Amino acid sequence: MELNLIGKKIADNFDFGLVVENINREVTFCNQKFLDIFDIKEQLKEIIGKNAEQIAGFLRPHFKDIELFEWGLKELPQKYIKYENTFNTLLNRTIKVKYIPLFIDSVIERHVWQFEDITELELKNLEIKKQREYYLKILNRIPSDIIIANVNHEFEFINEHAISNNLRREALIGLNANDYLKGNIGNSSEIVHARNENFNLAIHENRRVDYVEEIPSTKGGISYIYRSLQPVLNEDNKIDFVLISGTDITKQVESETNKQILNSRFERIINKINDAVFQIDFNGKIIFINQAAFDLFPFFGKTQEGLFAFVNTQLISFADRMQCLRPIVLVKQNKSEVNGVLRIGNEDNGILFLKYSYWYTNNTEDGETILGSVTDVTNQYVEMNAMKFAIEKEQQLNSMKSKFINITSHEIRTPLSVILSSAEIIDLTLPKENLNLIVNPKDYTQTIMQEVHIVTNILNELLIVGSIDSPNSKFKGEMVEIQSFVASSTTKYLPFIDGRALQVFYSVEPSEQIFIDKKLMKHALDNLLNNAFKYSSGKKDPILSIFKKDDNLIFSIQDFGIGIPADEVNNLFHSFYRASNVSNISGTGIGLMVVEHAAKMHKGAVEVYSVLNELTVFKLIIPNSHQ
């Protein structure tokens, strides 16, 4: 009686609904969470004894796909097949349903049903997916080359405008930009050098760098690309990546060049700038102004009364007039180059972002003058800010995801520890055999402890997954004896719970050691061994072989189970991916992601070979390092 009370209290604290049926499909146990999920008004004691059809009557009005749901209720208990699926309700909730046949001494004793409302989690996942797709769509629709490179000049993102071929674009991610440039620009070492020099300048001085690139065209002539490199800082105020944009301004350059080459004294201006051009003396008198400047600044009018005349007009505000005059005054005072961006206008009449460059000149012909060029970068400025916001938003979402995994995992560990310790105490205090009971309570305590260990392993994997992209993820290496490590990591497979036993073969000396992160490697090896048994139920014993090859230590795990479809092998290490032929076998889809992470942390690799419905071999390759 006391044990039943403890079990009820534990079940009532589950965050999922629980229903247990006997072999006659009559309810023998039900927790309050089940009633709450489906808004069932009956008391718990009124549910006990009801048959499966009566329970189905409570649930049937809630689900959209009634036929699939009722098939599960009727067919699964007849076939004793573990099952898990999600169903949508008429109120747009998502319910995860799980069926577990409970055997005692190979005889079916109970049918266990779990019902969990995962609506909030599904909505969050959907929102994250939509936001990511939205931000990627923005980046790909920007009519300029947009590239994100890390501080080592390795590509992290390339938009469709830069490279339209999806396969080629994906292949470049992670590649060093220099390797790509040398292969695509050929012998133009000046272009490669200029890109490296400007990239390093942006990194070292932590500032935006803009320049115009001249690239020989395959059809003859020259293409002009306006490049901008903007370092983006992380939360630690260090450069996280560099945002690189490139806009083809060839037509603009050619048009401006044809207009402005009127005589040789403007060559120095044309060679340096590509948009609005003017030259004024120190009194503000306009010496030269091109058509592009009239187009960009309608408040110039069609006169050449002087630059100061237009900034005193009523067509722009006082604050904007001061902005326009300030850099010109600085050039006069310091007699040096001044660069910047002006923001003029207002929300009602429109806002312009103008990139300007002013230079001080002094020659015998014109005396002291100011050369100026101005480019309308409004669209580029707005688009880059939108993209920066999108990237920051995605970083925040990734940070929230990692924090959610860590907090949730640690919060769940506490009640799991309490459940496990309680089950262990009960297990120790019960006699090994109790012939007066129809059901041996120790079977249940063993099941509780086993399931807690399974959930704990899942939480450990979630913690590892959450730390993969974290800068705080560290390799904790130590020297361990190989055979001793393998022996301690394979205990539960000698034998496994299904009666089979792992076959272990060593081709290394008993005292031979290797430098590894023991905890991480144990997770990886346990994942591969557990998969070998799980996906080969009823087949020959899986085999673990440990041997050395090319100064690497190789853990080879072979099973003779269902195998992996050939076209799905490359997707195995993606997060939450599961092969199409494992739908009836439980799993999270993150185990192999942990295995790959462990291999990378050891500077190693994972290889997979599989023949469908015959065998699968995973090789975990670890460099045989001693430091």
CATH superfamily of the largest domain: Histidine kinase-like ATPase, C-terminal domain
> How many domain modules?
5
Q: Please state the second-level CATH architecture of the largest domain.
A: 2-Layer Sandwich
- According to CATH, the fold-level topology of the largest domain is Heat Shock Protein 90
- Protein structure class: alpha+beta
Please list the strands of the largest sheet in the order they lie side by side: 2-1-5-4-3
Short précis:
The chain has 19 helices and 22 strands. With 627 residues, the chain is α+β, with helices and mostly antiparallel strands.
SSE layout and pairing:
Layout: H1 2-12, E1 17-21, E2 27-30, H2 32-37, H3 44-47, H4 52-59, H5 66-79, E3 83-88, E4 94-104, E5 107-117, H6 119-141, E6 145-149, E7 155-158, H7 166-172, H8 177-184, H9 189-205, E8 209-216, E9 222-233, E10 239-248, H10 250-260, H11 267-270, E11 276-281, E12 286-289, H12 291-296, H13 307-311, H14 318-334, E13 338-346, E14 350-363, E15 367-376, H15 378-429, H16 441-467, E16 478-481, H17 482-489, E17 503-506, E18 513-516, H18 518-534, E19 543-549, E20 552-559, H19 591-601, E21 605-611, E22 615-623
